[in-house]
Amino acid sequence: MTQQELSELISTQNRDLASIELIGTNIVSESSTSQYQVVAHYLNGLSEDVTSNSTFIVNKEDYLIDNTNGVLTTPQLSSDESIILIVDYLGEQENDTFMVDLSVLIEDMELREALDNNQIVWTTGGTSTNSGWSGQNFDSYDGVDAAKSGLTGDQSTSWLEGIVTGSGTLSFWYKISSEQDADELKFWIDDQIMLLDSGEKEWKNLSYEVAAEGNHRFRWAYEKDKSDVIGQDSVWLDQVTWSGAAVISSFQSWASDRGLTGDMSTLFTQDHDGNGIPNGLEYAFGSNMSMNIKIIHDEPGVEMSVQNSFTEDFVDIEISGTTNLVDWSLEVSELGGAPEGYKWYAPTNIPDSAFFKVDATLK
Question: Is residue 243 located within the same domain as residue 256?
Fold first, then answer.
């Protein structure tokens, strides 16, 4: 069925609105653009994109939102802040409003920083693009930062996973603001569900003993039902500690844990979850890998995530530079002073302009 046929069918059948869904991210950066999509779900079981027919409102000045395509433009900020994005569809005829808190960050925050744990190998994702968990500093147990679940629509999921090896004790703090007994936080150790919670709960600490040897997977997921947005519609996680050993595994083990089979060299270059990061780089740096051009010590340079230490025996990482996008022989050196969890690189001889890339080679 074409989009036109679908629209005609909806217009001629029962148009009673069941709910609207906002698709996008709830963690945005300053001086950037993010696009949001509004989907209307009708009682007849059909859905359609109603972005161009919706009204977007931001509760603070200097934020621009295009009502024709749902593009939010954030201003330059002096500090992190929180805004509220309100979406209205059908207005006075049949009002349905979706309101979400957005965290606007000066700098992207890696999960391991927000979770206070560099030992565990972290990955995140969800039902739709940008629905994975992110670091933020608006709500936390330790007063510094915490991870927050991604923006999820009806009948969707935002998940976070960590992998460890051997026996030990896992401890973490969590908070939830959701529809009671409907939109739920679930936590598993391997395939066994250990926690199911919902409603309005302030920060709570839990600990679990893991006795078995081998690799173990911890999974937190925020799962929504088919309708309604109650509270802040989010889960937060902070101060994750693990008393056992960090996972030590090859790329082959990493691929096997995700159900990937085939030639390892081929898998290394592919993108199994479609997040834009090749498998080799996601294995080496995690799913929140970042690489940003910036001025460092008054020189053009690049700031990038630190390689996960357990991958160093299996993957070689090389930073290359160029001035023309053809010859990548520009000499690049590591600089001191980078914040925790990152490294700084800059050309040895300062050019007028430079480009950088990272290459990963499977040993």
Answer: no
Q: What is the DSSP string of 211-251?
A: ---SEEEEEEEEE--SS---TT-EEEEEEEEE-SEEP---H
- Amino acid identity of 34? S
Instruction: Give Cα 60 distance to the centre of its chain.
Output: 24
- Give the chain's domain count: 3
Q: What is the tens place of the pLDDT at every residue in 287-335?
A: 778 888 888 877 778 888 888 777 887 899 998 888 888 899 888 888 8
In terms of Cβ atoms closer than 10 Å to its own Cβ (0-12, 13-18, 19+), residue 62 is: exposed
Is 187 within 8 Å of 195 (Cβ atoms)?
yes
Q: What is the pLDDT of residues 113-161, one digit of tens each?
A: 899 997 787 888 887 656 788 888 878 899 888 999 987 667 788 899 9
Are residues 152 and 84 part of one domain?
no
Whether the predicted model's global pTM rises above the 0.70 cut? no
Distance CA 300, CA 348 (A): 11
Q: Which domain holds residue 128?
A: 111-247
Q: How far is CA 14 from CA 18, 42, 49, 89, in A?
A: 11, 8, 17, 17
The first and second tokens of residue 250, run together, are 């090859």
**pLDDT confidence tier of residue 281, bands split at 50, 70 and 90:** very high
Q: Is the dihedral angle over the CA atoms 338, 30, 360, 283 positive or is it negative? A: positive
